[in-house]
Specification:
Radius of gyration: 20 Å
Number of strands: 11
Number of helices: 17
Order of helices and strands: HEEEHHHEHEHEHEHHHHHHHEEEHEHH
Shape: globular
Largest sheet: 7 strands, parallel
Structural class: alpha/beta
Length: 374
């Protein structure tokens, strides 16, 4: 097979709940739906599944949402991409945490890398399947990694440039640890879960008392439980709390397309992705198994680029620490001026240029390696 067809940049896709794998094409990406499997025993048991089963059965009737509503909202937010027509043989992509529709400002530009684009919703999020989440942090991490590997096997991808945002960055790094031969380059965008939790004394100084109280009160619940419990008031609550998202995408949408998508994206049940994420954390959002402790174990031949926003609330020291840790490997830190945590939406043009350059450099390195072999 031609080398160019073997190397792919991965962007987030989705896993369907049942039935054989099915495929459908959009203007800028191949988007796949498949059923994930894990060994003979399937997925692990959610520790809240039994106690909250009656809540899960009641919430759909309380929330003005459904999988059909989410599909409609996603079709609306991705409509600008469908209007641009097929991109030919070019392609590029990313793998992210929440919903692939939020990358509407990036996908068309990223296809300029000349690689196929694959866009995924992380397992348990968006329109992906929602199996019961594992209780232990390591098992939950392996669940995410294995679902990505099963997806890769079905598509027959050989080597990938793997880009992940937030939790997607964490899972991408974990995947590279387990399957180094399948990863050409990692692009970690505002990755969560790399740094260790501060010492208790430092933590007491950094965390306001009201946040500690709120965290204790919400500890038994999943992160988005409040949005679901708000029922018919949920859409208004989301617009009040995250009015910034409408502004981020104002150059593409003048109406409520983005808030509508965000609402339906975040109230779907069962909330297995959130539960898995919660089981991977310790109080105030730090990872139980910080990835920084394992970054030295990633194959040194895998290039790593860390992209962060200059105004982000996420610890921006991770990229520099990874650079120092991998002094004999190619590791780059890219800071996007004026961007926050959603760097790909805040400063989309700068972000797109950065990713295109990373992919171009990867291809140049690939050609140089081929020349040396010849």
């Amino acid at each position: 097979m031609d080398r160019a067809l073997q190397d792919h940049t991965v962007c987030g896709q989705r896993h369907a709940t049942d039935g054989p794998p099915s495929y459908r094409h959009s203007a800028v990406s191949l988007r796949m739906r498949l059923t994930s499997r894990l060994g003979n025993g399937g997925y692990c048991t959610d520790r809240f599944a039994v106690a909250s089963s009656w809540i899960s059965s009641w919430l759909p009737s309380w929330c003005p949402s459904s999988p059909t509503h989410l599909k409609t909202a996603e079709d609306r937010i991705l409509h600008p991409l469908q209007q641009r027509g097929p991109p030919g043989s070019s392609g590029a992509a990313a793998w992210f945490w929440g919903g692939l529709g939020l990358w509407v400002k990036n996908l068309t530009a990223l296809v300029q890398t000349g690689r196929p684009v694959y866009a995924l919703d992380l397992l348990g999020f968006g329109r992906s399947s929602r199996p019961a989440a594992c209780v232990q942090a390591q098992e939950a991490e392996e669940q995410f990694v294995q679902s990505l590997e099963e997806w890769r096997e079905v598509l027959g991808l050989e080597v990938m440039i793997l880009l992940g945002h937030n939790l997607g960055g964490y899972v991408s790094a974990a995947y590279a640890l387990k399957y180094p031969d399948r990863v050409q380059q990692l692009v970690l965008v505002e990755p969560w879960g790399f740094t260790e939790r501060p010492d208790e004394e430092d933590l007491q100084c950094r965390i306001p008392l009201w946040i500690k109280a709120l965290g204790s009160a919400m500890n038994p619940f999943n992160p988005l439980a409040l949005l679901r419990l708000a029922g018919p008031l949920g859409p208004l609550l989301l617009q009040a709390l995250r009015s910034d998202f409408k502004q981020k995408y104002s150059s593409v949408f003048k109406d409520d397309t983005v808030p509508d998508y965000l609402y339906h994206l975040n109230v779907q049940t069962p909330s297995s992705g959130e539960t898995a994420f919660k089981n991977m954390t310790i109080p105030y959002g730090w990872a139980q198994r910080p990835m920084m402790q394992r970054m030295e174990m990633i194959d040194p031949s895998i290039r790593i680029s860390v992209i962060c926003g200059s105004r982000s609330c996420i610890d921006g020291q991770s990229g520099q620490a990874i650079q120092e840790m991998r002094s004999n490997s190619q590791t780059d830190l890219v800071v996007i001026t004026g961007a926050g945590h959603y760097v790909f939406a805040d400063q989309s043009e700068d972000f797109n240029r950065a990713v295109l350059k990373i992919c171009s450099n990867a291809r140049d390195g690939e050609k140089a390696e081929q020349d040396r072999k010849e």
